[in-house]
Design goal:
Blueprint: E1 11-20, E2 23-33, E3 38-42, H1 49-57, E4 64-69, E5 72-73, H2 79-85, E6 87-90, H3 102-108, H4 126-130, H5 132-135, H6 147-159, E7 165-169, H7 177-194, E8 197-201, H8 205-208, E9 213-218, E10 221-227, H9 233-239
Parallel strand pairs: 3-8, 3-9, 6-7, 7-8
Antiparallel strand pairs: 1-2, 1-4, 4-5, 9-10
Helix pairs in contact: 3-6, 6-7
């Protein structure tokens, strides 16, 4: 159970503006993710989608705006405290540490739990129900895994922190087409079994349609939103680069 009420969104972003030097990357972004839902952020490359996720995670500081998770103000918190507040982050490119074993990559995810590794040293066995192949690869190095296996590892690592919200930045990027469906299925299964909410950046149309709600970005701002069931071909053609 999360700390948000029935009608209160789990994640609320209001008026978020982020700049790199003189360039304004995010422009007064308003966005909500409700408990148990998947929200997809769509838009062509370079419109600010990754910047938005990094700002939520605390890796980039906004010039103004608000970010609340289950009613808690996240802006004063550094990234590691945001992770412990209930955010899991799977960045673009996955960032699996190639020299470490699968087991040690997973153990890094324990740092997101209250007390970190000092108090939590046991891997959550639920991830092996979600990703049974990982249980057979614990002593393999992360760099020796395929792209699809690394994505499973990155998802499983994020789940070690028992997040309320998962931020997923293009999880199907660089994945072979025959494995894309497996990643989609894994995310749906994670949501069903853990109750986690998902904010997803994605270009793959079939995956986009798995979400409850979409937000379309252009030039750093939200320019369209609604249920994905209402996502028209005109909007798809205009905002998706695939």
């Amino acid at each position: 159970m999360n700390g948000a009420g029935m009608d209160e969104p789990l994640l609320r972003i209001s008026g978020l503006t982020t700049c790199y030097g003189e360039s304004r990357i995010l422009r007064d972004v308003d966005l909500q993710v409700h408990g148990g839902q998947m929200v997809c952020l769509i838009g062509r490359n370079g419109v600010g989608k990754t910047t938005l996720l990094k700002t939520v995670m605390g890796l980039i500081c906004p010039q103004r705006g608000q970010i609340h998770l289950a009613g808690r103000d996240l802006l004063p918190l550094p990234p590691h405290q945001r992770a412990r507040a209930g955010i899991g982050y799977v960045p673009q490119g996955r960032e699996v540490i190639p020299q470490l074993t699968v087991r040690d990559n997973l153990r890094l995810g324990l740092e997101a739990r209250p007390g970190g590794l000092a108090r939590q040293d046991r891997l959550d066995p639920q991830v092996f129900d979600l990703f049974p192949a990982l249980a057979t690869m614990l002593e393999r190095r992360g760099g020796d895994l395929s792209g699809g296996q690394q994505q499973q590892l990155a998802l499983a690592r994020a789940l070690q922190g028992k997040p309320q919200l998962l931020l997923l930045d293009e999880p199907t990027e660089g994945i072979q087409p025959n494995v894309v469906a497996d990643i989609e299925t894994a995310v749906r299964r994670i949501m069903a079994r853990t109750g986690v909410s998902v904010l997803l950046v994605e270009q793959h149309l079939h995956f986009v349609r798995q979400a409850h709600t979409y937000y379309a970005m252009q030039k750093g701002g939200i320019v369209a939103s609604g249920p994905t069931s209402d996502l028209s071909q005109a909007v798809i053609d205009h905002f998706l680069s695939v």
